[in-house]
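Entry for pyridoxal-5'-phosphate complex. Fields follow.
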Amino acid sequence: MLLYEQLASQLREQIAQGALRAGERLPSIRQLARSHGVSTATAVQACLQLEREGLAQARPRSGYFVRAATPQTPSLRPPRRRTPATVSNPMLQDVLDMLARSDLLPLHSATAAPELLPQSALTASLSHCLRHAPAAALDYAPPQGHPALHRMIAQRYAQLGVSVSPDEIIITAGAMEAISLALRTVTTPGDVVLVESPTYHGILQAIAALQLKVLEVPNVPGGGIDVARLDQRLQQNTVRAAVLVPNFNNPLGSLTDDAAKQAILASCAKHKTIVIEDDIYGELSWSGQRPSPMRRWDRHGNVITCSSFSKILSPGLRIGWLVGSEWTDALLRAKYFSTVGGASLPQLALVHYLQRHDLERHLRRLRMALADNGQRLHEAIERYWPKETRACTPRGGLSLWTQLPPDTDVGALFETALAEGIGTSPGMLFSSRGDYADCLRLSCGLPWSDKLDRALQRLGRLARDKRIHR
Ligand SMILES: Cc1ncc(COP(=O)(O)O)c(C=O)c1O
């Protein structure tokens, strides 16, 4: 057993025996190192191990805390299909109808509530740009976007040790347009695109809209993308592109580790599969440690990176971006044909905001709030939902994936909850052919409130009522 495993095992035992209780702070890294005669790196490794197991939770600047007893992790069956298929999602219209409603408690929405975002600072930046430079603010933005914003995004990558030239960045209308443009640029109808299962339904719909076929590879709650199966799928099929969310997959919140990311890149390069990396949740690690985007290890210029400010600053500004690698010119043409350029005002306002505010400080607060919400959701599920319910322990992002007892009619639960003003996202949305019929995704972006507590209580009652008794 390695040193860190020994230390993790001792801490695990103390938690199991109640010597360290839920909500209590673990000894600090320095105390652990000193009292166990190990290096601080070893103590950090041990805490990270407990975090991976869902036993401890890091709170930025405060250390590690013992998590409350957590529900068991969902036991997801790998997708049955190993061959490419078209996307068919009978629930899409339900989602569109739900998104049009403003009266719901938005447990369906993978966004942070307005209270968690810097609304007044962004409003001030928008007003400033309109007041001081109305002509520029109300004009077309250049097709590639405003250069000052490219530079800021490139600087942020540089802080992560990822070299990105401002010239290869294209501003898009959110990450969704970035993904669509990337797919449109590198594929032709009938091509096969690999995705994780489960994955964000917008990715599946973008693939369907371009008449592409989809091939799914499992993403497992505790471990991320299944690299061995990915390699197998690439060997057995000609796959033009892979759209992957290695940092905090939506809906699982799982993290694919650095070694797996490098193995995936090697496998994709070997099989000439272009990687479209969706890093939209990369900044939302609940432990505070920002994982690297895959392009950090891209030696073959084989990765197009897509991301946006939707999850960290404002979904409504609709500002995302592409890092285009060798496809930058073709992507820029696609962007031009799609919308000519983006809206100037949000881009200029964002530059103004980023110049004047400490983004890192905001992110620290946001990550902490999301981790707390996730913990509270777990506790409510433990308290109110059927005891066989399982729930993921997300490593980051905005979603909590739950698995209800197998005889629950999740479709009926969704409908009834919706009629009562509670939005949820049924699991079936997150695969190409309606797998995960027993799962439900909840948002971690809502601050705790009595209303939310009552809604979770109600969902628990509905989950009991909606059991199909055969
Ligand atoms: C994985 C993933 N990619 C892309 C998007 C779309 O992002 P945007 O709002 O920036 O278009 C979402 C939104 O939920 C998402 O979860």
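NOTE: Residues 143 and 396 are 33 Å apart (CA to CA).
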